[in-house]
Write a structure and sequence with these properties.
Elements (H helix, E strand, L loop, with lengths): L10 H10 L1 H6 L4 H15 L7 H4 L8 E5 L3 H11 L5 E5 L2 H11 L3 E7 L8 H11 L4 E6 L13 E4 L4 H13 L7
Parallel strand pairs: 1-2, 1-3, 3-4, 4-5
Helix pairs in contact: 1-3, 6-7
Organism: Methylobacterium trifolii
InterPro entries: Bact_response_regulator (IPR050595), CheY-like_superfamily (IPR011006), Sig_transdc_resp-reg_receiver (IPR001789)
GO molecular function, one term: kinase activity
Length: 187
């Protein structure tokens, strides 16, 4: 059955070959974890490859001030990014707190505004994210949002809460504050 696999064959070809044998593998009683791997290979053949995270391609411009949009809904994130692109801030979008923290690790000193939803993809939620940012990058203006019945969660004193559905004007006001008001002192 596997005589078509040969040494030196690229991994994607090996995956495609395994995917072509998927039905017979399952009927022969292949362990579920291997069948799951084959299903993922098969799905990657159908689905387009995921693009690199937007921050990976974002050019590093010395002295540029950034707005970080952290939202797991791609349409809402795109709307917020589009709004913030009309300001003097560069914009980076993330779908998880973990992705946002990676951006902050590399460009944290440039981040003037973080606009985050409470519910996010990944293990951390937006509330945990703003608490971490408040401690580690205290100069960033923090704006938290939610549309899931959250009124004003326990969050850092300097953070702002805007319930969903938010209005464009509210976001633009916070962006203006992030660029015009002095940053809080670092203790």
């Amino acid at each position: 059955m596997f005589d078509t696999l040969s040494p030196g064959m690229p991994l994607d070809q090996i995956g495609q070959t395994l995917a072509s044998f998927y039905d017979s593998l399952v009927s022969e009683g292949v362990p579920e974890h291997l069948a799951a791997l084959v299903r993922r290979v098969r799905q990657s053949e159908v689905a387009p490859a995921e693009p690199a995270p937007p921050y990976a391609a974002a050019p590093i411009v010395s002295g540029e001030r950034l707005a970080l949009v952290v939202e797991d809904d791609p349409e809402v994130r795109a709307l917020a990014e589009t709004l913030l692109e009309e300001t003097e801030l560069g914009v980076i979008g993330c779908d998880s707190a973990e992705e946002a923290l990676e951006v902050l690790r590399t460009r944290g000193g440039e981040v003037a505004l973080v606009f985050a939803d409470v519910r996010l993809a990944g293990a951390m939620d937006g509330l945990q994210l703003v608490r971490a940012i408040s401690t580690l990058w205290p100069r960033a203006r923090l704006v938290l949002t939610s549309g899931h019945g959250v009124r004003r969660p326990e969050m850092p004193a300097d953070a702002v809460f805007i319930p969903k559905p938010w209005r464009a004007f509210e976001i633009l006001v916070e962006a203006e504050r992030a660029t015009s008001e002095p940053s809080p002192p670092v203790a």
